[in-house]
Write a structure and sequence with these properties.
single chain; 295 residues; mainly alpha; three-stranded antiparallel beta sheet; transmembrane helix
């Protein structure tokens, strides 16, 4: 069995992976909150897509790759199969998106939450082991079945909690606290799965195919940076409930000011004086004022 080191660079890679998972979780929770406030199916789909990218792409997959930078096997180089690596990204985003669609359509119930958590958790576990299968090294990968099952269970529980938080948490402090908890859950699942891994040497070694970590690091970091910036911009540019209320008030006020003035109707004439009086009508002379002689 070959020696494995999960923390080749010390605390740097786990700290960065935890920071990425917290950041992605916080953005995902905010985007999920916009799903509940959306007024149309198109808006719900848009915010669901952004939440899936934040949770699946940043909080889960980017965290996984950052943690893998600290993974090393003694006496072997490590390369990555690019198509399988890209497939692991798609699995993470799609599984989270489907989980959000399950719990976000209709009234939230225990059945929907369990179904969404089970599907998303299975997808997260599939993402993890697909990413591990993308590794190319001078050895054969082996897994302890008990720890693999434990990692899948952790993934399902973490996904269920994450979906519940995404549908219920609204305030800023609660979102921050929930993101910290979700970061612990995501990292716990990752390192539980990594503890199940063992590497056995090949009978014969050959040239490794695939991309080196340094070749994947730059495009992945750029994708994460632009993704986070895009998420923040989308959140800042989207109108809030206060903005909608203010716009509705201004529209109503403008409509009231732009409408023509209404001519008031004459007051009722109960005794019919207007009909009998000829005073002030055309051709009717005004009565003359005769001077009274005081003598």
């Amino acid at each position: 069995m070959m020696e494995i080191n999960h923390f080749e660079y010390g605390w740097i890679t786990p700290a960065l992976s935890y920071a990425l998972s917290v950041l992605g979780s916080a953005l995902g929770l905010v985007c999920a909150g916009r799903i509940r406030a959306a007024r149309s199916a198109g808006q719900r789909a848009w915010w669901g897509l952004l939440a899936a990218w934040a949770l699946g792409g940043t909080a889960i997959w980017a965290m996984h790759f950052m943690a893998m930078l600290g993974f090393a096997v003694a006496g072997s180089r490590i390369r990555y199969d690019v198509p399988l690596t890209a497939a692991s990204t798609a699995i993470a985003v799609v599984s989270v998106g489907i989980g959000l669609a399950i719990v976000g359509t209709g009234r939230l119930s225990a059945g929907r939450l369990l179904a969404g958590g089970l599907f998303t958790g299975a997808g997260v576990a599939a993402m993890h082991y697909t990413g591990m299968a993308a590794m190319r090294l001078d050895g054969v990968l082996g897994y302890d079945r008990t720890r693999v099952a434990l990692s899948v269970l952790v993934a399902v529980v973490a996904a269920t909690v994450a979906l519940w938080l995404a549908m219920t948490v609204r305030r800023g402090l609660a979102i921050a606290a929930s993101a910290l908890v979700m970061g612990i859950a995501v990292n716990g699942m990752h390192f539980t799965g990594m503890s199940a891994l063992s590497v056995h040497p090949h009978e014969r070694s050959g040239d490794l195919t695939g991309a080196e970590v340094s070749g994947l690091l730059v495009p992945i970091v750029l994708a994460v940076v632009f993704g986070v910036v895009g998420l923040v911009y989308a959140l800042l540019a989207a109108p809030t409930e206060d903005d909608r209320a203010g716009a509705a008030y201004l529209d109503a006020r403008w409509a009231a000011e732009a409408s023509p003035a209404v001519t008031p109707e004459p007051a009722p004439d109960p005794v019919g004086l207007r009909g009998r009086s000829t005073l002030g009508q055309p051709g009717t002379p005004f009565p003359s004022r005769r001077r009274t002689d005081p003598r």
